[in-house]
């Protein structure tokens, strides 16, 4: 019965993922059809494929690798677009497999503290709400901390997500010190024996020094209560920014030790290929992807499902 429910749930998610990646996969799939209909796999068609992959935000390095892998297998042979799509899906899944870590809190940590960082509007608050909901359905007890004290709307938004998911939210008025709020939240979550504490943060990147000081202070203060906290530091990236997401990883990993990435808003863009570029460039775990604004629109990342949905739709 449990298996049946899981199967139903994952089938539902796969359909959602495919729908979410439809813009990206249409671009890739139609492009491949355009290049390889009644064509051989030769230098010219491979160059066009490489350009298509770059235009779809997989990045020049991944594009060159994928084209080379295809050349080695099928050079100077006739090849149908379906075969190109299948080969690419397989090779992309191999690039993604090492970063597909999924979402598993450390059972020894009580709570497992997740610091969520990212630029304004990347989807941090929404992602925390979705993660809370996801983990709640996995039977975990979750606490939230409204650490983005810079923006009153972010605090309210997190409170709404907390109510929706039925999980406690530790919040103060805007302008409060986010590190002391994080401390208070960890104390409360510890006392309650919670499995997870998710901490929202502000993302004012225009002042890197301030941001760095604030995030460092939060981490330092958490360590007073648990030297291993935060167990995770997730960077939330908006897929619609395309290659700019790579620059954001560079910036944030100088500020905090990142343990994983969450890529959001894949549903609104044809730039889903950026997930592959991120995986290849940084090797950081892609913990989850977001394909919509609803609570059910974020799930643990799976390499093969993502690769197939990206290329074959
Ligand atoms: N379509 C779509 N929209 C999303 C997704 N994730 C987040 N959003 C929307 O993106 C907008 C910004 O999300 P927030 O969660 O407020 O972003 P934030 O990073 O917390 O922003 P600040 O609070 O300003 O730091 C909201 O309107 C969300 O509903 C997604 O996967 N798909």
UniProtKB/TrEMBL annotation:
Residues 110-261 form the AAA+ ATPase domain. GO terms for cellular component: cytoplasm; plasma membrane. Signal peptide: none annotated. It is an enzyme of class 3 (hydrolase). It comes from the Bacteria. GTP binds at residues 118-125, 200-204, 264-267. One of its GO terms (molecular function) is GTP binding. Residues 111-312 form the SRP54-type proteins GTP-binding domain. Involved in targeting and insertion of nascent membrane proteins into the cytoplasmic membrane. Acts as a receptor for the complex formed by the signal recognition particle (SRP) and the ribosome-nascent chain (RNC). Interaction with SRP-RNC leads to the transfer of the RNC complex to the Sec translocase for insertion into the membrane, the hydrolysis of GTP by both Ffh and FtsY, and the dissociation of the SRP-FtsY complex into the individual components. Belongs to the GTP-binding SRP family. FtsY subfamily. Part of the signal recognition particle protein translocation system, which is composed of SRP and FtsY. SRP is a ribonucleoprotein composed of Ffh and a 4.5S RNA molecule. This is Signal recognition particle receptor FtsY.
């Amino acid at each position: 019965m449990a298996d049946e429910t899981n199967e139903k749930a994952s089938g539902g998610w796969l359909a959602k993922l495919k729908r979410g990646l439809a813009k990206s996969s249409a671009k890739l799939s139609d492009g491949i059809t355009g290049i390889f209909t009644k064509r051989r796999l030769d230098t010219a068609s491979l160059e066009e494929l490489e350009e298509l992959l770059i235009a779809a935000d997989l990045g020049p390095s991944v594009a060159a690798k994928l084209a080379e892998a295809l050349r080695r297998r099928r050079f100077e042979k006739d090849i149908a677009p379906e075969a190109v799509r299948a080969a690419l899906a397989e090779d992309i899944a191999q690039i993604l497999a090492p970063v597909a870590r999924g979402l598993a809190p450390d059972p020894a940590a009580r709570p497992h503290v997740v610091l969520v960082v990212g630029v304004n509007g990347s989807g941090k608050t929404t992602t925390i709400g979705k993660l809370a909901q996801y983990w709640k359905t996995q039977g975990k007890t979750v606490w939230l901390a409204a650490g983005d004290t810079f923006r009153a709307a972010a605090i309210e938004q997190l409170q709404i997500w907390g109510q929706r998911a039925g999980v406690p939210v530790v919040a103060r008025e805007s302008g409060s010190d986010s590190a002391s709020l994080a401390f208070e939240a960890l104390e409360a979550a510890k006392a309650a024996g919670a499995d997870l504490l998710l901490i929202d943060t502000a993302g004012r990147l225009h002042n890197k020094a301030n941001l760095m000081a604030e995030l460092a202070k939060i981490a330092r203060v958490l360590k007073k209560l648990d030297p291993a906290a935060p167990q995770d530091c997730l960077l939330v990236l908006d897929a619609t920014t395309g290659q700019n997401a790579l620059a954001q990883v560079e910036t944030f990993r100088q500020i905090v030790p990142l343990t994983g990435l969450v890529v959001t808003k894949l549903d609104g863009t044809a730039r889903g290929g950026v997930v592959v570029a991120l995986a290849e460039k940084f090797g950081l775990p892609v913990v989850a992807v977001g394909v919509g604004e609803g609570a059910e629109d974020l799930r643990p990342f799976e390499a093969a499902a993502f690769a197939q949905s990206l290329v074959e739709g």
